[in-house]
Amino acid sequence: MTYERNYNLLNNKFKELFVPTLLASIAGNFAVLVDALLISMFMGPLNLFVIQSVQPLIAFVNVIYWLIGFGGSILCTHARAEFDSEKGNYLFTVSLISVILIGLAISLLGFLFPDFFMQLLCASDQLKPLVSQYFNLYLIGIPFLCYFVVLAYFIKTDDFIKLQFRAFLLCNAMNVILDVVFLKFLNFGIAGAGLATTIGNIIAAIYITTYFFNSKATLKLVKVRFFKSMRYLVDISKVGFSSASIPLYESLKLLFINILIGGILGEVGLAAFNMCFNALYVVGIFILGTAQSILPIVAVYYAEGDFQGIDYVTKISLKIVLLFGIFFTLLFVIFPQSILFIFSVTNPLQIPIVLNAVRIFSLCFLAYSISFLYMFYAPSVEYYKLANIITILEGLILPIIFAYLFGYLWGVDGIWISFTITEIVTVLFIYIYSKYVSKKTDGLYSGFFINKRASDERRMEYSVKGNKDDVLILSKEIKSYFDDSNLSRVMEQMLLYIIDINDELDWIDIIVREKDDSFLISIKDNGVNFNPENINISADNIDYSQIMGFNNTLLTVQK
What we know:
The chain is an alpha+beta fold.
């Protein structure tokens, strides 16, 4: 019998991550969309401009918690995959402290200088009082939101996926319920939407803190030093910047395009753009959920040099986002009336403008799905410069250039078309760059995701069922292939120990790599955790970590 790697363990982990992470993405990004929908329903679609005005601030807050949350969690995942739990805990602590302090600073500045923010966010003196009502209440929840979201990113790598999902669900369920109560029954006006969002953030922050009281939690808060923390924060920011800059560029892009559309169609055009933007927001939620599912997996497997595993999971993810892109494109192109229903648009003067905008704008969804996935993939494999280039091209430079150019040529229809051209050009850039890198490295890096080829060292990859008979047969195969009885004996002892401490175990993945003077045996299983110091085997070194619910064991056997 020959045991080849079947990726069942990896596939099961992806499925385990995907649905809760997708649901968490839907729940976690639902608040602004719900605010827009309920405001449109209870107060009229033109009041959407209030949310649109505050959107740059909301996008800036997103920059902060994505910068620290994504950057910190990726570096923490790398550290834990490399068996450095001390560094992982330090990154975790620095990230939480930093984001809380920054969130408090933003809120304080907002309360101290409200006129400055109003001047920046809203040019209409008539709308400023409404924008101010939402703005003031939204400010209160910013520190809670930043803490809650960053902690959620970290605990996912510690296999607390359900807690993350429940926290996001609780946050936005409260937001929806309180939106209805405050807007419909208590007539709080636009301030009610801001208050509902803030209360949801506070409740979620309290709930997710229960992580620290769970005995299975492996991430710990540790004592930090100022200058060392600053160095770590710089590293976190470098890693997280490409993903975090998405909402930053989005806010700048919105400011420019709002001015452009407002000058052509006025408030009706801005309302139509807001509906297009929210349709894109819905698509982005699903793509973000997929991207966040693969991010910890790719980060772990990259740190371990398991490029075949990366290739497997990226192909699955690409198929999923393509399906989402196709589905939403067809939905909004064929049935643009769904937007009218969702946002309660009944004004006969607005309907043809909105239908036309949505139908043209929706053509960008397919290419957008691909580029958005890539923006989160690239940092997890340390392609930081490429990630930054793609993000600024797709998020700022190309949309502004094409919106101005096509808007000048074809009016408002040209602006809607410019979004599709932007996404197509972005995907073409990635494709051309990947071909360039493959040619430059003689195929060492290849494919659309520029994945590295496994090194030329002798290596074998196996998957076995969690039973002793399969382990004994595999041990003989390894002894025959590598011609080293000590190697096969160490691997056999480790696998039998793992099976003995588990009542039931599905698949175990094993990768054996030959170095100049040693063999490395990498073993992954989803069984109970264990203390490597209690294992009596003849390996020269044992490294162990628990990450994403996997037991991650690395054995070194000298030749």
